[in-house]
Amino acid sequence: MPRINYHRGFKWIAVPLLACILSIVPGLVRCQDAPFGSELSPLDGEWIFVEDQTEGRPLEQINPPMSSRFSFRIEPGTVILASGHGSGHRDVRLALDGTPTEIQGTAAGALTRYRATLKEGVLSYEVEFVRAGGLADERVIKREFHMTRDGLIVRSNLELTPGVGSVGLYRHAEDIPMPVPAKATLADISWLVGDWAGTRSTGASQEERWSPAKGGAMLAVSRSVGSNGKMFAFEFLRIMERDGGLVYIAQPNGGAATEFVLSEISSTRAVFDNPRHDYPKRIIYELGANGGLTATIGYLKGGTPRRFEFNREKNQTSGAWLTHLYHALVEFEIEGRKNVNGNHGKPEVTSQAAPARHTERAAIDALGNIEIS
């Protein structure tokens, strides 16, 4: 991982150091007088998992020490656990002197107790769960946050190997470099065109239907149907030519668009990456020797990627089906360059935003109603 000039990390070090230097001059602020808010200000904002730095961890166990995406808000003398801290609560305000913050549970006597401290530039907090009747739960979350030149180091008591805690590197999205795009055109990925369907081990069916390239784009929809016959997930997909390469744009359940840049291409394999996304960070399509298609999602390195197996359907219907869907989506126009530019999948909706919501609903209805032979 390349070393970067991490400006927030410098501020973490510089503010208390300046306070100490000033303490040498009579009448000026002393080291211990440096306000907590100033020291912790670099923690403010959203953090994205970059890599597992747990020493000796096997490749298949690579995992973040907490959520892949979390955020803090910082106020003088207070840290606010805004989101992604895994305790089921948002915007939890913690004093930095160990004073507990308690949030009552739904059952009588149940509560969640938080404590935070700041010592030698390391923010620590723990989360204790108290069950109904006042009985302490064995689960206690413990985490430490330490700013470095490479980013934010997070240590937790999450043990994938007994006795070994977890360590991970996080950065703000704008400080995570994007991959160098591979040169390609849609002709290089034409092997993906067609109707693909498969069955999971749970009995659920899954499908992806990719249109031929036209106008610099390939369009697709995916749908997952449970063993009970009801759709539980769908996705709008695009692969577009841009700046001599390809960009994969995903909208799970019709939501915000997230972009992945083509980083590797061959006659049977395409790899799309977005290290600024929480999960997945990588999407791989691979054509097998038997003609089947495998789609894999996961981290950039290691872990336990999720694999989806498809076979090409004999009766290809993607052209007519996608045309029908296109008419349902004609006013749902998403400007798809936001995530690569650091806006984390927050698309800019055109002036037709209000009718777009109506046509998105129509598209969802279409996904549930169209029969595929």
Furnish the topology, listing elements before pairings:
Elements: H1 7-23, H2 36-40, E1 45-52, E2 69-75, E3 78-83, E4 92-95, E5 101-104, E6 111-119, E7 122-130, E8 136-148, E9 151-161, E10 164-171, E11 194-199, E12 205-210, E13 217-225, E14 231-242, E15 245-252, E16 258-265, E17 269-273, E18 282-287, E19 293-298, E20 306-312, H3 318-329, E21 334-335, H4 339-343, E22 348-349, H5 353-369
Antiparallel strand pairs: 1-2, 1-10, 2-3, 3-4, 5-6, 6-7, 7-8, 8-9, 9-10, 11-12, 11-20, 12-13, 13-14, 14-15, 15-16, 16-17, 17-18, 18-19, 19-20, 21-22
Helix pairs in contact: 3-5
What does this structure look like?
The chain has 373 residues and is α+β, with helices and mostly antiparallel strands. It has 5 helices and 22 strands. It starts with 6 loop residues before the first helix and ends with a helix.
In short:
The chain is of the alpha+beta class and 373 residues long. The protein has helices at residues 7-23, 36-40, 318-329, 339-343, 353-369; strands at 45-52, 69-75, 78-83, 92-95, 101-104, 111-119, 122-130, 136-148, 151-161, 164-171, 194-199, 205-210, 217-225, 231-242, 245-252, 258-265, 269-273, 282-287, 293-298, 306-312, 334-335, 348-349. The chain folds into 2 domains: 7-175, Lipocalin; 186-369, Beta Barrel (Lipocalin), CATH 2.40.128.
